[in-house]
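Module 6 notes. Inverse folding takes a fixed backbone as the condition and produces residue identities as the prediction. Think of it as a translation problem where the source language is geometry and the target language is the twenty amino acids. Below is one complete input and output pair. Work through it position by position during the lab.
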């Protein structure tokens, strides 16, 4: 009798804790049950995520990537705009399902999060004022000041080269700080900087160096068995985008070229 009672108790616990009893897929199941995929992004980083000047609508490469993934899952995409330094904390607390914001795959991040397959590849560019002749390479950042989003890959890279970084919330702000002379330089995605130059041809700024290798851009999500099926589904959506040509078409639309292959 005691053995039967124990089996019944185990069955009840299994129903209450699907992931713990091998049910898996909790996060994906919940997303489908709610009918929405909650995606966090900055909304201030053109051409990845930004607002159209005429309509005020949230647009960008990552916006359309997120919409495609949500459609592939059969749910609606719900976007939440958060400053960079709050993106991962919000995902940790379960406020949203994914961060889609041109996120570089790094060793430190991979220890804490599971990443999707890469869907884009970018180099980091170093920007200074046009009249700056002292900084011509990343090695010249030793003892200099830069401006970048707090906790970003670009801030970390600048600090590795010996720079002191000032935190900002947007690409426009960091570029203005360099141009005004408040900081010596900034680091950012090559495509984002070229897009900024295209929108601000009068900017007295120049690119002086690039990283030799491209960084992988992927979608981070919480680690754990309950997220395994979500990761698989996101990877399937990315593969579908590749195979039907959507991914490369979106890249050309927003970046003027294909950055979706290494």
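Target side of the pair, the amino acids:
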């Amino acid at each position: 009798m005691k053995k039967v009672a124990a089996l019944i108790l185990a069955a009840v616990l299994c129903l209450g804790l699907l992931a713990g009893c091998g049910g898996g897929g909790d996060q994906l199941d919940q997303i489908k049950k709610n009918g929405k995929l909650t995606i966090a992004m900055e909304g201030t980083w053109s051409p990845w995520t930004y607002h159209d000047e005429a309509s005020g609508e949230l647009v960008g490469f990552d916006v359309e990537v997120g919409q495609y993934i949500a459609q592939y899952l059969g749910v609606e995409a719900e976007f939440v705009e958060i400053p960079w330094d709050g993106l991962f904390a919000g995902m940790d607390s379960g406020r949203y399902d994914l961060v889609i914001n041109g996120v570089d795959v790094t060793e430190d991040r991979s220890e804490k999060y599971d990443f999707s397959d890469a869907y884009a590849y970018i180099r980091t560019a170093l920007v200074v004022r046009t009249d700056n002749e002292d900084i011509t390479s990343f090695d010249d950042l030793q003892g200099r000041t830069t401006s970048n989003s707090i906790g970003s890959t670009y801030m970390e890279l600048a600090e590795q080269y010996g720079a002191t970084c000032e935190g900002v919330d947007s690409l426009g702000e960091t570029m203005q700080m360099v141009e005004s002379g408040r900081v010596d330089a900034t680091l950012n995605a090559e495509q984002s900087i070229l897009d900024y130059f295209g929108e601000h041809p009068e900017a007295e700024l120049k690119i002086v160096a690039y990283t030799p290798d491209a960084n992988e851009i992927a979608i981070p999500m919480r680690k754990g068995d309950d997220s395994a099926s979500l990761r698989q589904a996101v990877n399937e959506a990315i593969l579908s985008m590749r195979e039907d040509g959507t991914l490369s078409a979106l890249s050309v639309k927003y970046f003027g070229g294909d950055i979706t292959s290494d």
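Reference fact for the lab report: Residues 1-24 have pLDDT under 50 and may be disordered.
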